[in-house]
Design goal:
It contains five helices and 16 strands. With 287 residues, it is an alpha/beta fold.
Length: 287
């Protein structure tokens, strides 16, 4: 009898240890999943960048080795593992032009508890005209030069759009222009991915046309460098910029491109060759 109970006790302990191990393995570390929008041309490869960040005790620590899946039209079209920095590159080649919404989700074996993240893939013909729009020019008030950080949640913290901005920009895009939204981050601000997501949500909520969101650091040379990169990459139809700040306008004018400033800046603030629109209803007349 004593042998039986000893054996029974052994198997009970063994079962408890296995069950405990299984539960521990099933526990997931809390984290966030963020993505950046991407831009490409039909039949040209695009890369969706997704980032897994641990939260809690290991806040802001990238999580490597996490499996991610890229969903488009309800299908998994790519998979990838995050690197040591928590980032993964998910490739996709679209066939036709347009705006392609996508979703990135954690794989079944991920050790991080994540909610899915969505974004847009802009698929543009290289010969189609592109207009770059500084996000600050779309907002009713801008604090500091180039500041476009959007705070989600509290209604009082959400900036209002400039009167007629969404309607007038929609008219520009309806038959002609593709829109490149330029977001300038403040020093010490949130990550590029989070700034991208906040900008996309604000544009959607305020009913602006779909475009490609470009997030840049606060460096005054960043926009000019990006314009040069895009032209070298074949986006030569990016010839016009609509912005609020002098730095934005000068980046275009220095490259012999057109710049429209809106709303009308203080006297002496507009560069000499910049066009000035008193409001958004006046913008199309200047283009």
């Amino acid at each position: 009898m004593s042998v039986f109970f000893r054996r029974a006790g052994f198997f009970t302990i063994l079962f408890f240890c296995i069950a405990t191990t299984t539960l521990s393995a099933a526990e997931k570390v809390p984290g966030t999943l963020t993505v950046l929008d991407s831009l490409t041309a039909p039949n040209q490869p695009a890369t969706i960048i997704a980032t897994v960040t641990k939260t809690g005790p290991l806040a802001q620590a990238g999580s490597g080795g996490e499996p991610l899946e890229l969903f488009i039209a309800g299908n998994v079209v790519a998979t990838a593992m995050t690197g040591t920095d928590g980032r993964a590159s998910l490739p996709y080649t679209p066939k036709a032009k347009g705006a392609v919404p996508f979703t990135v989700r954690a794989g079944t074996t991920s050790g991080v508890a994540l909610t899915e993240a969505g974004g847009n893939l802009a698929v543009w013909e290289r010969r189609s005209p592109i207009v770059a729009v500084e996000m600050a020019s779309l907002m009713d008030s801008a604090v500091g030069e180039g500041t476009t950080v959007i705070k989600p949640g509290n209604e009082s913290e959400v900036r209002r759009p400039m009167p007629d901005a969404a309607e007038e920009l929609s008219k520009l895009t309806q038959f002609y222009y593709n829109v490149l939204y330029v977001v300038t981050m403040e020093k010490g601000a949130t990550s590029r991915e989070q700034a991208n997501a906040h900008a996309r949500q604000w544009l959607t909520d305020q009913k602006f046309p779909i475009g490609h969101i470009l997030v840049l650091p606060s460096d005054q040379e960043a926009l000019g460098v990006k314009l040069d990169e895009m032209h070298l990459a074949g986006w030569k139809q990016l010839k016009t910029g609509i912005g609020r700040t002098k730095v934005f306008a000068e980046a275009f004018l220095q490259r012999r491109l057109e710049a429209v400033m809106v709303p009308e800046p203080a006297k002496g603030e507009a560069p000499r060759k910049a066009k000035v629109a008193k409001d958004w209803k006046d913008v199309r007349k200047k283009m």
